[in-house]
Amino acid sequence: MTTPAEALAAAARTSLHAPSVFNTQPWRWRIAGDTMTLRADRSRALAATDPDGRLLLLSCGAALHHARVALAAAGHQAAVERLPEPGDPDLLARITFTGEKPADARAAGLVAAAAVRRTDRRAYGDRPVTEEQLTGLRRVVEAEGAYLHTVRPDQMPMLGISAELAGEAERLDPAYREELERWTARPAHTGDGVPPSTAVRPALRRVPVRDFVPDGQAGLDAGDGYDAGAAYVIVFGLSDRPADLLRAGEALSALLLTATADGLATAPLSDAVEVEWPRQLLRGLLAGIGEPYVAVRLGYPETAAPLPAAPRREPADVIEIVAR
Ligand SMILES: Cc1cc2nc3c(=O)[nH]c(=O)nc-3n(C[C@H](O)[C@H](O)[C@H](O)COP(=O)(O)O)c2cc1C
What we know:
Layout: H1 4-15, E1 27-32, E2 35-40, H2 54-73, E3 76-82, E4 91-100, H3 105-116, H4 131-143, E5 147-150, H5 156-171, H6 174-184, E6 231-237, H7 242-261, E7 265-269, H8 271-274, H9 276-285, E8 291-299, H10 315-318, E9 319-322
Parallel strand pairs: 1-9
Antiparallel strand pairs: 1-2, 2-4, 3-4, 5-6, 6-8, 7-8
Bound molecules: flavin mononucleotide.
Flavin mononucleotide binds near residues 22, 119 and 271.
């Protein structure tokens, strides 16, 4: 018989697969009996790239969603309180194990997807993402309390320009360059950061992909595709309040895992929301009705060549189990 603490620990381990900005994995779990808490780890914040910590909260939300899905897949029932202590804003969630229920097959599919999902920065091919797939993904995002906008063909140039402007502004910012270099040259034992082997060499793209190693050599060639069949979506919400950002991170995770389970390759794009003017342009794509949180490219890879995996931190460095 699995104890509540064991069930929660297994869910926390699944959350280590979650995507995070620069692969910073800025969260910590603490398990005590039948309760587990999720904390933001501000020592992993990106002061230059993400000074307000919006991408940090999205990343933590993705970890929270991974843990929730793992519990549901294993047939565990849990109550989730988000930002439970107003005086302790880094305490992002408290999950309490409340009992057993039938295992959720859909959640099991998402847990399987979590283990194989990788950010694929290469160009995708001509095969289009269908309206039906996009509608399904929009529902999944809305079920998590956020919104999804599919960038229309007439809006594509503006998305491309936004990413280009943001990339240019960041390239000229020494603090950004220093931060990028730090997180792309991490020693292997840290289990974090974006290894150049997973980055893509610059090429002409419909929407530019972040150049992670401007002074070095990225490991991946963009390939023969032109992202012609790719869909670009924007996860957005009503405000930049922490509660909305945490929810949006859960929605981002639901989107990425559902798309992966559906055979799609995925790549988040956040540079355009990191710089104020491009972010303003993205607000325009949403007709001013919301705050853009992160864009995602979805599609079918042009190549079957395997993608190298990004590293992950050791469970013992992220998950604390307290004896009670
Ligand atoms: C909030 C957020 C923003 C991200 N922004 C970008 C981005 O702008 N460009 C990019 O190539 N990847 C981006 N990523 C993907 C991460 O770099 C990636 O998740 C991390 O390096 C771990 O790799 P994996 O997704 O293959 O496991 C983002 C991920 C998150 C959660």
